[in-house]
Amino acid sequence: MMKRLLSTLALAGACGLAAVGAQAQTKPAKLDQIKAKGFVQCGVSQGLPGFSTPDDKGNWTGLDVDFCRAVAAAVFGDATKVKFTPLSAKDRFTALQSGDIDVLSRNTTWTISRDTSLGLNFTGVTYYDGQGFMIRKDKKVTSAMELSGASVCTQTGTTTEQNLADFFRANNMTYEVIAFATNDEVVKAYDAGRCDVLTTDRSGLAGERLKLTNPDDHIVLPEIISKEPLGPVVAHGDDQWFDIVKWVLFAQLTAEELGVNSKNVDEQLKSSANPEVKRLLGTEGKFGEGMGIGNDWGYQIVKTVGNYGEMYDRNVGPDTPLKLARGVNALWNKGGLQYAPPIR
Amino acid sequence: MSDLVEPAIGRSKTSFINDPKVRSIGLQLIALVLVVFLGWMFVDNARQNLAAQKIATGFGFLDNTAGFGISQTLVPYSETSTYGRAFLVGLLNTLLVAVVGIFFATIIGFFVGIGRLSKNFVVRLLSTIYVEVIRNLPPLFQILFWYLAVLSAMPSPRQSINLLGEVFISNRGIIVPRPVFEAGTGYVLWSFGAALLVVIVLHYWSRERRAETGRGLPMLPIGLGLMIVVPFIAMALTGFPISLERPELKGFNFVGGVRVIPEFVALTVALATYTGAFIAENVRAGIQSVSHGQTEAAHSLGLRNGHTLRLVVIPQAMRVIIPPLTSQYLNLTKNSSLAVGIGYPDLVAVFAGTTLNQTGQAIEIIAITMGVYLVLSIITSVIMNVYNKRVALVER
């Protein structure tokens, strides 16, 4: 609450005072601001296994967190030059609008209203997701169509809340929604038996199930009731910064497509004759310069964070506790949806 | 007095600029213009910058469809209602907690405050422990305790605790039968109103008679009797039009009946006990401010302890109790915004939470929300100040 109030005040203050005297033209470019302060400020989730969780030493891990590191690697050639701001779902956009954070990488669903009336730009999709339901096994429910009358716990300020209302309305079923401000409160209330069902994105369910007292007593129902393309977000008004964040993800996807990863990138840099690899790693063309960053931006991303596949497998893949198969998140030429425009 | 002073100032001798009256008005005017100008500049710049970032502005969003559900609604609301309607639902939920919380906090406060001064050691000790423990723990922590700790201990709807065969307590809340009104209910309500009127008239008549003759009517049994017997006769004549709809377990949950959600119970209990501890201290301070001589005087007139407290001590203590009591009422109302921690759909959760997030209009929504709390607080203050004037010691 305090944080939200501060953010709002900052937003009001920034909007109200920025243009006192001279007009808004004097505002320096986002990239120059970031270079001047020496790090990228990145908004992440307060704790969602696989996407962004701090360990007991305060080190953040996860897919969303790694993407922030890739942005830092592209800008500074150093993946550690990033600071994380943990944000609740309902505080995230205000923080971005007010300029508290430079990029929001917090399992955020791309929707038209967020893209337009909130003054934001989605830069791509780091994870294609869909909303699902988790329920106790002993309720003996096998389909979401049997959920009429159920109490549902969810997080406030999410697309989940609206999808839930749509789903129950479309199927003529009644429900009771109890919306909490943070993920942890949702999980605690569900664990205490306040509600029959917990709903959020299916990747989130996989992560939050691990926080329950007995994860094996719960199942995720098969229905996927919505499209949830999750991606990084930047604020309107700075096309250069929008381009950089957008192309960081494309570089990671291109690297995976070309078979360049963090282990072989040095060798590829020296010996690869493939012009596509050369353009990605910056030995041919001056694509970095065009964005105002180093020409070796692609090399730095792959070297320090890895390509998209590595990032996926490390955080949410089948060998992690989340055990999420690539599915629709595979590359386009492997039956998935992940597709990057060419670097040329 | 003024006749003597006026010639000394001598309006004609001081120049216009040195006239203290003109000066103070002039300075205040300048300050006012500055404040208004700064405010206007702030609003104007905010609007320009929001437009530059293409963030939607204005209050038009209040007419858009909300599209989300709310677990407790005192007025009809559905997912197809507008954000304006959601605002009303949130506001009423906040008011409900505030009013019920204030009611119970006052009762708890008065009993514990008097208990702190009791001659009985056990009562005094228990009251002291209550005040010291509750007052020194953060309210959010207490709300979470009442919510999570107590909720976890509650059974699921299928194994719910059953009171009198009608009331069910489970981790879904407290479910009581809902009264169903059929044709003829009007007569019953009218008869109840009539009985109430008769009781009020009787009460005043009895009071006058007691003042004159020293003998009043036993009002409690007469009043209760009238209020129960008359509506009962009306019900019998109209064929019992009011029946109870009993909650039934169907699927996941109870269907029918009235359900008090656990979020409401936890929030109200936590706020009432927390604020009650502070009110208890106000009450104790108020009572101790009445000099002991008053009690002795009352005793020597032959008043019993209860009468002494009720007729002599508390009326005098009230003028010390009321001003800090107002602050406690305001605190309780404002603390109700901690509801967001346990998912109770109050104004902050529904409007400054979900609605803000969906529309992204932070400045407008936070301004409205702050305005609402301000208005609520001012209304409470005004009511309490009027009451304070009435109980204040009239000095001549």
List keywords for this structure.
A: 344 residues; alpha/beta; six-stranded mixed beta sheet; 18% strand; B: 396 residues; alpha+beta; MetI-like fold; four-stranded antiparallel beta sheet; 12 helices; 7% strand; globular; cell membrane (chain B); transmembrane transporter activity (chain B); membrane (chain B)
Would you give an account of this structure?
Chain A: Belongs to the bacterial solute-binding protein 3 family. Chain A: It holds the Pfam family SBP_bac_3. Chain A: Residues 39-268 form the Solute-binding protein family 3/N-terminal domain. Chain A: Keywords: Signal, Transport. The complex is a heterodimer of chains A (344) and B (396). In chain A, strands 1, 4, 5, 6, 7 and 13 form a 6-stranded mixed β-sheet that branches. Chain A is α/β, with parallel strands linked by helices. Helices cover 39% and strands 18% of the residues of chain A. Mean pLDDT of chain A is 89; it is low at 18-24. Chain B has a 4-stranded antiparallel β-sheet with strand order 1-2-3-8. Chains A and B meet through helix 1, helix 4, helix 5, strand 9 and helix 6 of A and helix 2, helix 5, helix 11 and helix 12 of B.
Task: Provide a quick synopsis of the model.
The complex is a heterodimer of chains A (344) and B (396). With 344 residues, chain A is α/β, with parallel strands linked by helices.
CATH class membership of the domain at 83-154 and 262-391 in chain B: Mainly Alpha
Specify which chain pair forms the largest interface.
A-B, 60 and 54 residues
Q: How much β-strand is present in the residues of chain B?
A: 5-15%
CATH superfamily of the domain at 130-227 in chain A: Periplasmic binding protein-like II
Radius of gyration based on Cα positions of chain A: 21 Å
Identify the CATH architecture of the domain at 130-227 in chain A.
3-Layer(aba) Sandwich
Alpha-carbon distance between the two ends of chain B: 23 Å
Question: In CATH terms, what is the fold-level topology of the domain at 130-227 in chain A?
Answer: D-Maltodextrin-Binding Protein, domain 2
Q: Tally the helices of chain A: what do you get?
A: 14
Give the CATH superfamily of the domain at 83-154 and 262-391 in chain B: MetI-like
Assembly form of the protein = heterodimer
Q: How are helices and strands ordered from N to C of chain B?
A: HHHHHEEEEHHEEEEHHHHH
Regions of chain B with pLDDT < 50 over 5+ consecutive residues? Answer: none
**CATH top level assignment of the domain at 130-227 in chain A:** Alpha Beta
Q: Would you tell me the structural class of the helices and strands of chain B?
A: alpha+beta
- Biggest β-sheet: strands ordered side by side in the sheet of chain B: 1-2-3-8
Mean pLDDT of chain B: 86
Report the helical percentage of chain A: 25-40%
From the helix content, strand content and strand pairing of chain A, which structural class follows? alpha/beta
DSSP helical segment count of chain B? 12
